[in-house]
Amino acid sequence: MMRIALLGAGAMGTIIGALLTKAGYDVELVDNYKDHVDTLNEKGAHIVGGIDEIIPVKAVMNDGLSGKYDLLISLTKQTTMKESLENAMPFTHDETMILTLQNGIPEDIAAELVGIDRVVGGGMEFSGTFVAPGVSKLASGKETLGISFGRPTGVIDEKALEIQAMFKNALGHCELTNNLMGVRYTKLTDNSCFSGLATALGCLVGDILDNRKAMECIAYNGRECANVIKAKGINPVELFSLCPTIENVSFETKEELDRVIEYWTNIYKAYRGQKASMIQDLEKGRKCEIYQINGKFIDEAKKLGIPTPFNDKILELVVEIQDGKTSLEEAWEKNLDRFEIPAL
C-alpha cells in the first residue's frame, strides 16, 4: 500500500485526507496551522455539511515529515506550492509521484522538481469550507465527492490506475482521463466564474444565483473562458455537469443569454452555500490565487489576441480587496455596479 503525504490540509485537504484514511490508506495530513494539526490528532477530522462524521487521522506539521512517501498529494495554494514541495523532496524516492489538485495549472511547478513523468494532476468536483481547527464543511452534496485526474502526457498506466482505484474507494467517484488539460481548463473556468466573481463581490454562490446582473457577469465571463479554450485547441471535459464549450456557454442574443444563464444556474444550484477559497484566504489575511485563476485566462488570452473585459474586471476588484482598498463586507454593494453589461 502506498504511503501518502497530503500537503496542505485545509478545507479540501482535510476532507480528502479523512476519507482516504477511513478507506484504510496510510495518509499523513501535513499543515502549518498548529491548532488544526493538534485538533486533528486529538479529536479526529470532523466533516460536517454534506456528511457528518468524525474520522481519526494522522497529522503533522510541515517539519514533521519522516521516512519516504510514495505519493505526495499537493493541496497548498499555488502561492506556496513550490516551497511546500521542496520541503517534501528529502522524503521522496525515485518513483514517488506528485498529484497536484490545486486550482489553475500547477503541473509545471511539480514537473520542475521531479520531471513530468512523475506528475499527475486533476480537479475536485466538490467544494469545502474550513470551519474551525479540525472541522471542515462539505459545502456540496455527498454525491459530488470525486476527482478527475490524469497525466499531463495523457498516458494511462498502472500507477495512474492504482491512484484511480484508491480515490474510487475513498470518495466513490474518480475519473481517469487522457485529457488532463481539458479537465484543468474546465475547472479553471469554474473557478474563474464562480470563485472569481464571488470573491470580487464578497458573497456566496447563492447570492450570485439570485441576482440577474451577477448571473449576466457569469455568462459573459464564462464566454470569455470558452473562447480562450477553443482558441488553444483544448477539448474541455464535463465536470459536475459543467463543460465550457462554445456550444454550451456562448450567446449572441438575449434569448441565448437567458438559456446560458439557465445552464449555469442548473449546475450551481447544488453549490449555493459554497464560500470561495479565495474569500477564505482573504479573510485570513493571506494572498489569494487570483493571478493563477482569472489571471491565467487573461495571460493566455493576451497571447491569442482575445479580449477578456470581465476576467480583467474580476482580477482588478479582487486585487483591490487583497490590497485593502475595499473590504469584503462592502464588496457586493460597491463592486457589482462596476461591471458594464453590453447591450444585445
Arithmetic mean pLDDT: 95
* Class computed from helices, strands and strand pairing: alpha/beta
How many DSSP E strands?
12
* Overall form: globular
Question: Which runs of at least 5 residues are low in confidence (pLDDT < 50)?
Answer: none
Any overview of this molecule?
- The mean pLDDT is 95.
- The N and C termini lie far apart (58 Å).
- The strands form two sheets. This protein has an eight-stranded mixed beta sheet with strand order 5-2-1-6-7-8-11-12.
- Strand 7 (92-100), helix 4 (107-114) and strand 8 (119-124) form a beta-alpha-beta unit.
- The chain has helices at residues 11-22, 34-43, 81-88, 107-114, 158-171, 180-201, 205-209, 212-231, 246-249, 254-268, 277-283, 294-304, 309-322, 328-335, and strands at 3-7, 26-31, 45-49, 53-55, 58-61, 69-74, 92-100, 119-124, 128-132, 135-138, 147-150, 174-176.
- It contains 14 helices and twelve strands.
- With 344 residues, it is of the alpha/beta class.
Could you give the topology of this structure?
Elements: E1 3-7, H1 11-22, E2 26-31, H2 34-43, E3 45-49, E4 53-55, E5 58-61, E6 69-74, H3 81-88, E7 92-100, H4 107-114, E8 119-124, E9 128-132, E10 135-138, E11 147-150, H5 158-171, E12 174-176, H6 180-201, H7 205-209, H8 212-231, H9 246-249, H10 254-268, H11 277-283, H12 294-304, H13 309-322, H14 328-335
Parallel strand pairs: 1-2, 1-6, 2-5, 3-10, 6-7, 7-8, 11-12
Antiparallel strand pairs: 3-4, 8-11, 9-10
Helix pairs in contact: 1-5, 6-8, 6-13, 8-10, 8-12, 12-13
Features:
344 residues, alpha/beta, eight-stranded mixed beta sheet, four-stranded mixed beta sheet, 46% helix, 17% strand
